[in-house]
Structures are given as C-alpha cells and as structure tokens.
Amino acid sequence: xxxxxxxxxxxxxxxxxxxxxxxxxxxxxxxxxxxxxxxxxxxxxxxxxxxxxxxxxxxxxxxxxxxxxxxxxxxxxxxxxxxxxxxxxxxxxxxxxxxxxxxxxxxxxxxxxxxxxxxxxxxxxxxxxxxxxxxxxxxxxxxxxxxxxxxxxxxxxxxxxxxxxxxxxxxxxxxxxxxxxxxxxxxxxxxxxxxxxxxxxxxxxxxxxxxxxxxxxxxxxxxxxxxxxxxxxxxxxxxxxxxxxxxxxxxxxxxxxxxx
Length: 260
Hints:
The chain has 260 residues and is of the alpha+beta class. The protein is built from three helices and 17 strands. It has helices at 2-22, 86-94, 197-204, and strands at 39-40, 45-50, 61-67, 76-83, 97-99, 103-109, 125-127, 132-142, 153-158, 162-166, 172-174, 183-186, 192-195, 224-226, 232-235, 240-247, 250-257.
C-alpha cells in the first residue's frame, strides 16, 4: 500500500514537470513593473492596455497612455474601453461616414467602492468623471488589430461633463442643460465596467447634443470633431496613431467619409 502511494507521488511529480515544460510564459522583456499599473499620480508614468491579457507583451499593446510629471494632481485609476454596436454602424453608413475602428474611451475613477452585492434592478452606477490634465497626455493607438484605410481620419466625440453649478434641486448641472448625463456601470467588485451603451449610442449618432435633450435629436454628425492633420501623427507602416488629450471628456475613433 505504501509503495503504491510513492508511485502516485512520483507520477504526479512527472506530470507537473511535463506540464510546466509545455507552458509558454508571456514575453515580458522590455516591460517595466510600472507599465502594468492602472494607477497614475503626480509622478507621471505609462499605462499599457493589452489586446490579449494572456500575452502581455509589448507587441500586444493596443493603447498606451503616457502621463508627464504633474499632469495629475492626485492618484487616478484609468480603465480603457472600446464600443461597437451594429445599429450605430448602420446609422453612420446612412449618414455618409463609415466606421473603421471601435470607439475608444477612458473611464477614470478615484477609488473602488469595494464588493457590493446587488441585483440588476439595483445596479451600482455613477456619472462620468471629468478630469482636466495640467499638461497634455499622449495616447498611442495600435491599429494593427483593425482593418483601417490609409485615408481614415481621427475624430473625437464630446462626452458632456457635470459642472459645479447646482440646479434648483441642489444637484450638479449638466453642461448641456440636461438632467441626465453619461452613466458609468460598475461591476460587483466595485470597479467601472464602461459607459452606458444607450448614452454612447445617442452621443455617437447625434441624437443627444447641446441643442437637443437626451435621445430626442435627429441622426447627425453634430458631435463629431475632426482632428486637424497636424494634431495627430499616423504611422501608416506601423499602423500607430498618436495624439494628445487634455481631459477625459471625449471618445476617439478612426473613420472615413463614405465615397458613393
């Protein structure tokens, strides 16, 4: 009986060694520990967002945020999200602008709420956090994961901020004059899980602008602002677009005007 037990131990050890030899470790060369952080403070630094978290290598960086020293006054956590919706794509095609990449946006937050047990009818949500940077933050967007035409342009889409002005109910006022604002969804761990999809849809297709209340406007590109050619760098060979942002109040997308 004791001999059989030793045989089992030996078999488990051999199996472990075999499986370990088959495992391919991520390519971590040239990656510094601080690149993994989502927390950035006044000291500055780099946040890398990876396309595939099972292989966190430099080749797999989808978006990089480069914060200079003192761009922030306090510690902030940043998450990056991409938005794609088939109905929005059809709307853009109808309006003469063909979407090329997913819409890119950053969700900043100061702290986690921690684990909170709640149901779908009692979800944890909060409003978009508007932050102005003291100096520009450089974004590098890797387009190798998308089919992007060389004549695609860089656009940004306004996310309305909540101002310091109070309305008659004592609540902070939306700069567009609406009582609603872009809402952030939070997961059970107390971290943001992207913006509300309907809010993003109305912002992108123009049904929510400074001229129309939430969801009431016609389909338009009124919220779209094209970057000037000298305001961003596009490496058509490496498929990298780089540009500076000055706050957290915009979404970004590479797109082109549809040629009939």
